[in-house]
Specification:
The complex is a heterodimer.
Chain A: H1 3-20, H2 30-35, H3 42-53, H4 56-69, H5 79-101, H6 106-114, H7 117-150, H8 153-174, H9 176-205, H10 209-219, H11 233-248, H12 255-260, H13 265-279, H14 283-295, H15 305-313, H16 316-349, H17 355-379, H18 385-396, H19 399-405, E1 409-410, H20 414-433, H21 443-466, E2 471-472, H22 483-489
Antiparallel strand pairs in A: 1-2
Helix pairs in contact in A: 1-8, 1-9, 1-16, 3-9, 3-13, 4-14, 4-16, 5-11, 5-13, 6-7, 7-8, 7-16, 7-17, 7-18, 8-9, 8-16, 8-17, 9-14, 9-16, 10-14, 11-18, 16-17, 18-20, 18-21, 20-21
Chain B: H1 2-16, E1 29-30, E2 33-34, H2 35-55, H3 58-73
Helix pairs in contact in B: 1-2
The chains are: A mainly alpha, B mainly alpha.
Chain lengths: 490, 74
C-alpha cells in the first residue's frame, strides 16, 4: 500500500470517528437526530452552514471551472454571500415559524402553510430525486480524488465503499451532531490545505501567484474577463441570479436541518453576518485552476486539474493529506444531504403513524439512499450525471411556493402553486433534455417564467370560480402545535 | 434602519453589476490579480460590516428581548 493510500484511508477513518463522537447516547427522537434539539449557537451553525458551501464540487470543480472558463468561474463566489443578505431577514421568519409549528423539513413548512399533504409529498419527492445525483457527485468526487492520487481504480472503488459505509454508520448514530463535529475538522483541513496549495503550486510551476496571472495576461488574456462563448456575460449573470434565488429561498432541502438546529433567531442572524467572510475561500481553488491553465495541455480533464498539479508538485504523503481534505469535502456535505433526504422520506413521503416507526423509516432511508447512490457511482457513474443538470434548475422551481409561504397571509391557494411547480419542472426537463433551448440564460430562470404565469393564471381562475377572499395563515391552538400535528393533521 | 439598508444595497448592486462594468470586466490585473476577482472579493468582504451595522443596531436588541420574553412566557 502506498503512503498516499495509507494516509487517505487513515484520514477517512478519522473523519468517521469524529462523526461518532458527535453523540454519546443513541436517540430515537427524529427531531433531536435531525436538529440536535434546536440548541446550536452561532458558532456551530457557522460550521454547519459553511460545511454546505464547500463540497467536492467546490474543491475540485472550482479549479476545473477556472481552468476551462477563466474568471467566469467567479459567478460562484458572490451568489452565496448575496443570498445570505436576504436570508438575514428571511431565515429568522422560517426559524420562528418552524419552531412554533414543529416543522422538521422544507416539505413540512410548505404542507403546513398551504394546508396540503399532497404539496408536501410533491416537494419531498422533488427534493429527494434532485438531491440524489448531488449525493452521488460527492461519492464520485471522492473516488476521482483517490484514483488520480493513486492511479488505481480498485483503490478508488474500495475508498468510496469504506468512506460511505462509515458515513452511513456515523450519520445513523449521531445525526446532525455528527455533521457538526466533522465540519470543524473538514473546514480546518480544507483551509490549511488550500492555503498551502495556493502558495506552493503557483510558486512551483510559474514562480508565484503574480507571475501566474502575468503569464495568463500574455498567453490567455480572454480568460481574465467574462467573454463571448459558452461562459458569456449572460451565462454569468443569469447563473448568479438563479443561484442567489435558489439559496435565498431555501430550495435545497438539506439547507433546512442546519437552519432549524439554531437555538434562537439571533443565532441565525449572527451566522449570516459572518458567513460571507468564509466564502472568500472559494477564490483559492480558482487561483490553482488558473495555474493549471498555463501548466496543463489544452483538453486536459478540467475536474482533474487541481489534483494533477498536486501530484506533480508534492510527495506521496502530502498528496494523501490533500485527498483526505477532498474526502472531507465529500463525506461531510454527504452526511448533511442524507439528513435532509431521509427526513423528507420519513416525514413527508412514507408518513408513518408513530414517532418510533417514523424514526425507523428515517434510518432505513439513510441506508437505502446511500446504497443506491454508491451502487450507481460504482456501476453506472454517468447514469445520474444527466439528472444533476436538473438539480439546481429543478429545485429553483420551488421558489414561488416557498416565497409565498414566507408571507403572513395566504395570497394564493395550493392548486395554482402546485400547477406552477409542475409546469416549471416539466419545462426544465424539456429545455434540458429536449434540445429545445440553446440560449445562455440559466434554464431554471427561464422555467420560472411559465411557472409564475401558471401560478398567476391559476390564482385568477381560482378566485373567479370560488370568489375566495384572502385567507390568514391558520393559527393552531397551543396544544396542537407539536411535530406530530404537522405530520398527521395537515 | 433605512440608512443601514441603503448601505447593504451597495455591495448587492456592485456584485450584480460586476460583469456589466467595462472597467471591471476587462483583461487587466489589479494588485497582480484579475480585476473581476479583486472586485468580487472586496465587495463580498464588504457584506459582513454592512450586515454587522444592522445586526448590532439597537433595533435587533429590542426584537431579541421580545423573543426571549415570549419564550419565557410560553
Amino acid at each position: 500500500m502506498t503512503s498516499t493510500l495509507t494516509v487517505t484511508l487513515l484520514g477517512i477513518v478519522f473523519i468517521a470517528v469524529l462523526g461518532f463522537l458527535g453523540r454519546r447516547k443513541p436517540t430515537g427522537d427524529l427531531s433531536e437526530w435531525t436538529h440536535g434539539g434546536r440548541q446550536f449557537g452561532a458558532m456551530t451553525m457557522w460550521f454547519l452552514q459553511a460545511g454546505e458551501v464547500f463540497t467536492t464540487f467546490t474543491f475540485l470543480g472550482m479549479a476545473g471551472l477556472a481552468f476551462s472558463g477563466g474568471v467566469a468561474a467567479l459567478y460562484a463566489l458572490p451568489y452565496i454571500p448575496l443570498a445570505y443578505i436576504g436570508l438575514y431577514f428571511l431565515a429568522p421568519i422560517i426559524w420562528r415559524r418552524a419552531h412554533e409549528r414543529g416543522h422538521l423539513t422544507q416539505a413540512d413548512f410548505l404542507a403546513d402553510f398551504y394546508g396540503s399533504k399532497l404539496l408536501g409529498l410533491i416537494a419531498a419527492i422533488i427534493g429527494v430525486v434532485f438531491l440524489l445525483p448531488y449525493l452521488q457527485l460527492q461519492i464520485t468526487g471522492l473516488g476521482l480524488a483517490v484514483q488520480l492520487a493513486t492511479g488505481d481504480q480498485t483503490s478508488s472503488t474500495v475508498s468510496m465503499i469504506i468512506a460511505f459505509v462509515l458515513v452511513i454508520a456515523f450519520v445513523l448514530w449521531s445525526g446532525i451532531r455528527g455533521v457538526a463535529t466533522t465540519s470543524y475538522f473538514k473546514d480546518a483541513i480544507m483551509l490549511v490545505v488550500l492555503l498551502v496549495l495556493v502558495i506552493a503550486i503557483p510558486a512551483h510551476f510559474t514562480g508565484g501567484i503574480g507571475a501566474t496571472f502575468h503569464k495568463i495576461m500574455v498567453t490567455h488574456p480572454d480568460m481574465l474577463k467574462v467573454h463571448a462563448g459558452k461562459y458569456d456575460s449572460v451565462w454569468f449573470f443569469s447563473s448568479m441570479v438563479a443561484s442567489v434565488l435558489g439559496v435565498l429561498f431555501m430550495t435545497f432541502p438539506h439547507q433546512w436541518p442546519a437552519l432549524l438546529s439554531a437555538k434562537s433567531s439571533k443565532a441565525v442572524r449572527r451566522n449570516y453576518v459572518f458567513l460571507p467572510i468564509y466564502s472568500i475561500a472559494l477564490a483559492l481553488p480558482m487561483i490553482i485552476g488558473f495555474t493549471a491553465l498555463i501548466v496543463l495541455p489544452k483538453g486536459s480533464k478540467s475536474n482533474a486539474a487541481l489534483l494533477t498539479l498536486v501530484q506533480q508538485a508534492f510527495p506521496g504523503w502530502f498528496i494523501g493529506v490533500v485527498v483526505v481534505a477532498t474526502a472531507a469535502t465529500a463525506m461531510v456535505p454527504a452526511a448533511g444531504l442524507l439528513i435532509g433526504m431521509s427526513s423528507l422520506i420519513a416525514r413527508n413521503i412514507a408518513r408513518t403513524r408513530s414517532q418510533r416507526s417514523q424514526f425507523m423509516v428515517n434510518q432505513g432511508a439513510v441506508v437505502g439512499v446511500t446504497t443506491l447512490a454508491l451502487a450507481m457511482a460504482i456501476a453506472r457513474p454517468d447514469l445520474l450525471a444527466n439528472l444533476l443538470l436538473l438539480t439546481y434548475s429543478g429545485l429553483d422551481q420551488l421558489i414561488p411556493a416557498i416565497g409565498l409561504a414566507l408571507l403572513t397571509r395566504k395570497l394564493v391557494g395550493v392548486w395554482p402553486v402546485m400547477a406552477g411547480l409542475l409546469v416549471g419542472e416539466l419545462v426544465v426537463i424539456w429545455l434540458t433534455f429536449g434540445n429545445a433551448y440553446s440560449g445562455h440564460i440559466n434554464v431554471g430562470l427561464v422555467a420560472l417564467v411559465p411557472n409564475i404565469i401558471v401560478l398567476l393564471a391559476g390564482t385568477v381562475l381560482e378566485r373567479t370560480l370560488r370568489g375566495t377572499k384572502q385567507e390568514n395563515v391558520p393559527q393552531l391552538p397551543e396544544a396542537e402545535v407539536e411535530p406530530k400535528s404537522v405530520v398527521a393533521g395537515v | 434602519m433605512r440608512r443601514n439598508l441603503i448601505i447593504l444595497a451597495v455591495p448587492v448592486i456592485a456584485l450584480m453589476a460586476t460583469v456589466w462594468l467595462p472597467f471591471v470586466n476587462s483583461a487587466t490585473l489589479w494588485f497582480g490579480l484579475p480585476s473581476v476577482m479583486v472586485w468580487t472579493v472586496l465587495w463580498v468582504l464588504a457584506i459582513t460590516p454592512a450586515l454587522a451595522a444592522l445586526e448590532f443596531s439597537g433595533r435587533q436588541r429590542v426584537a431579541d428581548a421580545l423573543e426571549t420574553k415570549e419564550g419565557a412566557t410560553r
